[in-house]
Design goal:
Blueprint lengths: L11 H23 L19 E8 L2 H31 L3 H16 L3 E9 L2 E9 H28 L4 H14 L8 E3 L7 E3 H15 E5 L3 E5 L6 E9 L10 E6 L4 E6 L5 E6 L8 E8 L1 H4 L15 E6 L2 E10 L2 E2 L5 H13 L2 E2 L7 E11 L5 E3 L2 E16 L5 E14 L3 H19 L12
Parallel strand pairs: 7-13, 14-16, 14-17
Antiparallel strand pairs: 1-3, 2-3, 4-5, 6-8, 8-11, 9-10, 9-12, 12-13, 14-15, 17-19, 18-19, 19-20
Helix pairs in contact: 2-3, 4-5, 5-6, 8-9
Length: 460
């Protein structure tokens, strides 16, 4: 009897373990063989050359341009240290903001030296760029020397123009242009022979500052009035003039900027003298209750000199004395309650008190007054009979008021205000309701204010 062979079934567990072991090995072997090892960074990316005749900069960036800019900035930082060291000696003398000025000078110097910066090496590692740049110190200093000498020559030309054309507004501009020419080179002594062919060496920058100071002393400005009188709170414009002239020649000076300040009155102004050396000034209103105040002015050299860090002053030696007073008001009014004159007026005294507080006003005779204040105050019934509300009689009235200011000199109306329909209520009588309305009108006068000084204008 022939036995049929049994069917063969493989061991799947053993096969799975074998495949799980061999596949990762094959994968990593294949990946490792296909991937090249990263190229090592060059030596110069770790250590810049040590040649003392150059400034070196290593730049790293995500693009070639970023790396190049970073290399230039590193060179600039080394130049900045040198400039800052040289400028520190004149910081106190000329009141420099050293950090800001160093930054500005460094930027100018580096921009002037861009053509002399050499790109020595470059390297790309993946998405990162490395660039090594250098700047020859000799070329840098030669470039500065040439530009410095050109700037000195141009500054001396401006200086000559300032003195050759007579003393005027343009004189300050020429001196300002001269300083602008040499500003990037103030870490150098800038010794020049001046006057020319005199054999005398002077430092150019301090000499320019001294000339500006001398010129500022020549500007003489005066007010056309030494004293004016103004009312407190009320717009009553006062006009005066500023006159500018050369102390040496007495010639008028055009185009001089004058800064004006009226202390505690929210008033500042900037005026320019015209071709005849005059500038008009208008003071509209006094907001401070001080009885004596001063309008002050000075030449605004900041508008003339944009490159000098120093402050130059030419104050107007005699300020305008402003004497402040309240207006004189003659009060004329009638206050009634339901047609009967008020025995104890409520509103009339309140109107006077408000005028005293807001205008420093003084009560005066009609003949001595600046303003005639006329007011009318009355109450009227809401209805002829009391209303019945919740089985009670309710008496209701309305208070009305009108006040008018007239200019005592011209008789013209200069202000008017009204308040109407201020309701009063009483459970006793219409007369009591009228008194309640007047009291509420008084409260409204205080809370809302009836006198608006800005609306009072003398037409003179």
């Amino acid at each position: 009897m022939i036995r049929r062979p049994e069917k063969y079934y493989p061991d799947f567990n053993r096969l799975y373990r074998y495949v799980s072991f061999i596949l990762p090995v094959v994968f990593f072997a294949t990946f490792w063989s296909c991937t090249s090892r990263p190229e090592p960074l060059p030596e110069w990316s770790h250590h810049s050359p040590g040649n003392p005749n150059y400034w070196y900069g290593l730049g790293i960036g995500s693009t070639r341009d970023d790396a190049r800019l970073a290399a230039i900035n590193e060179i600039a930082s080394q130049i900045s240290i040198t400039i800052s060291s040289n400028l520190s000696g004149i910081k106190t003398e000329h009141n420099f903001n050293l950090n800001e000025f160093t930054r500005q000078v460094t930027e100018i110097r580096v921009n002037n030296s861009l053509n002399n910066i050499e790109l020595m090496n470059s390297h790309q590692a993946g998405s990162t760029y490395y660039i090594l740049a250098r700047l020859s110190k000799q070329k840098y200093y030669d470039e500065i020397e040439q530009k410095k000498n050109d700037a000195i020559l141009q500054a001396l030309n401006h200086l000559d123009w300032a003195q050759a054309n007579g003393f005027s507004l343009q004189s300050f501009r020429f001196l300002d242009d001269a300083l602008n020419e040499i500003e990037p080179y103030q870490d150098y002594p800038l010794l020049v022979e001046y006057p020319q062919n005199s054999g005398k060496l002077v430092r150019l920058r301090p000499m320019l500052s001294e000339m500006v100071r001398s010129y500022s002393d020549r500007v003489k400005c005066t007010f056309s009035k030494t004293e004016i009188t103004m009312y407190y709170g009320i717009p009553n414009p006062q006009r005066l003039f500023v006159d500018c002239a050369d102390k040496t020649t007495n010639e008028r000076m055009a185009g001089i900027p004058i800064s004006l300040k009226f202390t505690d009155n929210e008033f500042t102004d900037e005026v320019l003298t015209n071709s005849e050396g005059f500038a008009g000034v208008i003071i509209q209103q006094v907001l401070s209750k001080a009885l004596v105040q001063y309008l002050q002015g000075e030449v605004n050299y900041t508008a003339l000199l944009t490159h000098f860090p120093e402050k130059f002053y030419s104050p107007i030696t005699t300020p305008v004395r402003v004497v402040v007073s309240g207006v004189n008001i003659y009060f004329s009014g009638m206050e009634s309650n339901l047609g009967d004159p008020a025995v104890n007026p409520v509103i009339g005294p309140e109107i006077k008190r408000i005028c005293f507080d807001q205008l420093m006003a003084e009560s005066s005779l009609r003949s001595d007054s600046n303003i005639i204040a006329e007011y009318t105050v009355n109450t009227v019934k809401r209805s002829n009979q009391p209303e019945i509300i919740s089985n009670r009689k309710v008496y209701q009235t309305y208070a009305n008021m009108t006040i008018t200011f007239n200019d005592a000199g011209t008789g013209k109306e200069i202000f008017q205000e009204t308040m109407e329909n201020v309701k009063g209520v009483s459970f006793n009588s219409f007369e009591d309701a009228g008194l309640d309305a007047l009291k509420k009108l008084k409260l409204k006068l205080n809370s809302e204010g009836i006198i608006d000084p800005d609306r009072i204008h003398f037409d003179r």
